[in-house]
Amino acid sequence: MNIIQRNFFRLLRSGAFESKEQIEPMSVFKWQKLYQLAVMHDVAGFVYDGLMRCREQFFIHLTDAQWAQWEKTIDSIRKNPRNDDAEEDEFLRADHLTNPILNRKLQSVLDDENSDIKSRQMLLMIIRISRHILNEGVPVRQLVELGTFLRTDGNGCDATLLERWLKSLKLQPVARLEASLLIMLLGFSREEISFAGAKDDKRTELIAHELMEFANTRVKDFYFYLSKEEGDVIVHTSNGSAMLGHIRRSARYFRYYPSETLTNFFASFAHSLSHIEE
């Protein structure tokens, strides 16, 4: 990671989990890039809290204009708080899988009112991140929310029951990837995460690098529209690079969730067709 990314995660850990972090010196330009990174990943509130906790450190040097920019952003967040339980894109909701066999198993778990509530909440958070990974790349905010849940309610989960569900839903590899990211990026220990497995995934650093790219595209960035050319109706995609990115992402993460990846790709394609415009 470069210095902007290192300081980004230090401030994120400090703000979200109140950890003690030492910030490295950066230029005004790099502090602006860090601000953009926080906004892009929807974690500006956590990073700002980290800035406040570390503000007296020698290397925290932002201009008056940059502090004003942060305060304006935070004021907007406070006036329009987001509902962390709500999913912006209906296609990505956590209580549904695109693989029909796995989805039946998931619905059976969710319909069992006698099962442990905290464990079900943990399962849904793992699935939510998995669906975002397949469709948009690794979601930083959802990782923070999972980490917060682990710290506050993790001990209330039935680890044996959760592991059984993860195995039944073929979620173990992708859940362990999520655990590796929590350990590498957010400062968690393996002992805090019941689904972490025996060792980290060797590809975690490469995947972490991908999520830090500024040009991340979302599944909803490519929809289809119709046009008439010489009497023929032609179907176009609104963002060809986003579509290619989705194909590459599906191939990259296939090893972590093979039973869901293929059906997810075709379901997302159909979801895009449903937004066709003339």
Describe this structure in words.
The protein is mostly helical. 59% of the residues lie in helices and 4% in strands. It has 12 helices and 2 strands. It is globular and about 55 Å long.
Topology:
Blueprint: H1 3-17, H2 28-40, H3 44-54, H4 64-79, H5 100-111, H6 117-136, H7 140-153, H8 159-168, H9 172-186, H10 204-211, E1 224-229, E2 232-237, H11 240-252, H12 258-273
Antiparallel strand pairs: 1-2
Structure characteristics:
two-stranded antiparallel ribbon; 278 residues; 12 helices; single chain; mainly alpha
Determine the fraction of residues in helical runs and give it as a percent range.
55-70%
The number of helical elements comes to: 12
Total beta strand runs: 2
Q: State the end-to-end CA separation.
A: 44 Å
Range of strand content: under 5%
Which structural class best describes the helix and strand composition?
mainly alpha
Q: Main β-sheet, in a few words? A: 2 strands, antiparallel
CA-atom Rg in angstroms: 20 Å
Shape: globular
What is the mean pLDDT?
A: 82
Please write the string of helix (H) and strand (E) elements.
HHHHHHHHHHEEHH
Q: Strand arrangement, largest sheet?
A: 1-2
Low-pLDDT segments, ≥5 res: 214-228, 231-240
What is the assembly state of the chains in this entry?
Answer: single chain
